[in-house]
Specification:
heterodimer; A: mainly alpha; two-stranded antiparallel sheet; 23 helices; 1% strand; B: 57 residues; mainly alpha
């Protein structure tokens, strides 16, 4: 994932800790459009795409599933990229530092320690449980054991996966980069393998007529849920994209490769995953490989997937732990990197004791994190494009307390926090992913996109009332800001 | 400067100065134009409509 990024920081001759927050210079921006497209493709071709494809097949059939994936990802990625990629690229600044004008330095800390942390912990535990399931499948096939998908052995191997992820992560970004160099091409091979075996083992007629695996009675609701789930998946790229995009050479080299690379690769991997799930009647990717590949090839692929999940976990946790350290101020700056990483993995390790729950609640977790990330994105877009006209005071991103224009009151931009709160409440009112209750309107407009619009409107209005009119928050005339940037 | 970056405050100052003197107006720091954003919005809308077309077929 961010392996290439991390390699580059070393090439730049800086420690990852310092370059993690400092604005990049022109000579440190190493990716053109083609490079960044490759980075995004290798991000998107990951095992979670198979899982999303399989989970979409729970709700809808093949044709509706493709439509839901195209619509959901197009919309989710569409606004997520505007919120995460553009400002970080322009200023070369790490994405949680560039959020300070929108939420304030304390506000960013609150969001990082809640929304971002929980989102990434959830993904980490899910990937670890997938490792547990993959390894037990291999064990059942090779040694005739009988470990179920929720057995203790799944937890044991998930914990081993977490331990190995921690080890890779504690070794630093260069190690992650080395592993990722062959994991991404390997996963492309696995995707092609699945496509070939699908072509051999099934037909278009069978695929198009296959019934969804566990739908609700209401067809419109099923489709809306599938779209919403895929919007949530698109938005869930938010925590990593900005910090990657700042390494690109031009705004266009960041914008289009993010959108095209993630969308294209995600759709291919998800559609293959959905077809496999519909063919075999199971949404779990670890179940597909043995029937398709046989005991030897299938086991090899499962073990490869297990290892790919471990490196994916290390990659996403790297960005998050860096953000945690940034957002904590003095609090965690002296804590050793390895200990900080170990602390991150405590909750995923606990969740690994509930493998059935995590798989069952995968869709809930993705949509719930989308309920908060979507209005966050809305507020960021309103701030950066509408109120600040793409101009930020670079020095003030790093100044102390009252010296910074982005200190607001107590370090919190209340317009930003209110936008997230109101957007998330709106989301949960029209669709509650925990209780699975939805208002009739959800079937027509879904929840994430309107929540993002509401977040943007609330932010725009409150920021004007609370700050712009009073000259607080650095929403200054363009000439003045330009001069300082 | 940010307390989290205390050890790199000097490096930060150097960078800010270099950006201000050498990189103002550089292509790497350009803002997206209205045209860029318009095309981006249209492409997003077009792909979304393509999804609805798949549904309708």
């Amino acid at each position: 994932m961010s392996g290439n990024h991390q390699d580059s920081t070393d090439v730049a001759g800086e420690t990852t800790g310092s370059l993690g927050s400092l604005p990049l210079l022109r000579k440190e921006r190493i990716w053109n459009g083609a490079d960044f497209t490759g980075v995004n493709i290798s991000l998107a071709i990951a095992t979670w795409a198979f899982l999303v494809g399989g989970s979409t097949a729970l709700l809808v059939g093949f044709q509706q599933g493709i439509a839901a994936m195209v619509i959901g990802n197009a919309i989710g990625l569409g606004f997520m990229i505007l919120a995460s990629v553009v400002a970080s690229q322009r200023y070369g600044v790490e994405q949680y530092t560039i959020l300070r004008p929108v939420f304030g330095i304390v506000g960013v800390g609150i969001l990082v320690f809640t929304v971002i942390l929980i989102t990434e912990m959830g993904w980490s535990s899910l990937l670890a449980i997938m490792v547990g399931r993959a390894v037990t499948q291999v064990s059942n096939s090779a040694f005739s054991t009988d470990f179920g998908p929720e057995s203790l052995m799944v937890t044991v191997f998930a914990l081993v996966a977490i331990a190995v992820s921690w080890w890779i992560l504690s070794r630093g970004p260069v190690t992650i980069g080395r592993f990722n160099k062959f994991i991404a091409p390997g996963l492309i091979v696995v995707t092609v393998f699945l496509m070939v075996f699908l072509v051999i083992n099934t037909s278009w007629d069978t695929l198009f007529s296959a019934a969804p695996l566990a739908p609700f009675e209401d067809e419109r609701l099923n489709f809306a849920l599938a779209v919403e789930f895929n919007v949530g998946v698109g938005v869930s790229w938010y925590p990593v994209m900005g910090s990657l995009a700042r390494l690109t050479k031009t705004p266009k080299a960041a914008l289009w490769p993010s959108y095209g690379g993630l969308l294209g690769a995600t759709l291919i991997a998800q559609i293959v995953g959905m077809a496999a799930a519909l063919t075999l009647g199971d949404s779990d990717p670890t179940v597909w490989m043995l029937p398709f590949g046989g005991p030897v090839l299938g086991a090899f692929i499962l073990l490869f997937i297990a290892f790919a999940n471990i490196t994916s976990t290390s990659s996403i946790v790297y960005s998050t732990v860096l953000a945690i350290r940034q957002a904590s101020g003095n609090l965690l700056s002296r804590v050793k990197w390895a200990w900080l990483c170990a602390a991150f993995f405590v909750l995923p390790a606990i969740l690994a004791f509930f493998p059935g729950f995590m798989y069952l609640r995968f869709m809930t977790f993705v949509t719930l994190s989308g309920a908060f990330l979507a209005p966050m994105c809305g507020a960021i877009i309103a701030d950066y494009f509408l109120l600040r006209r793409q101009r930020v005071i670079l020095e003030d991103l790093y100044r102390h307390r009252g010296e910074s224009a982005y200190h607001f009151h107590g370090g919190v931009n209340w317009a930003g926090m209110a936008a997230v709160a109101v957007g998330a409440i709106f989301y949960l009112v029209i669709y509650n992913p925990v209780t699975l209750t939805a208002q009739p309107i959800f079937g027509y407009i879904t929840a994430s996109f309107p929540a993002a619009i509401i977040g943007a409107v609330v932010y725009y209005v409150l920021a004007r009332v609370l700050y712009v009119r009073r000259g607080v928050g650095g929403y200054a005339p363009a000439e003045k800001v330009e001069g300082r940037a | 400067m940010d307390s989290a970056d205390a050890s790199t405050a000097a490096a930060l100052r150097r960078r800010l100065e270099e950006i201000q003197t050498l990189e103002q107006g550089d292509a790497s720091r350009a803002a997206l134009t209205g045209r860029d954003l318009g095309i981006y919005a249209l492409v997003t809308l077009g792909i979304t409509l393509l999804g609805f077309l798949v549904l309708a077929l």
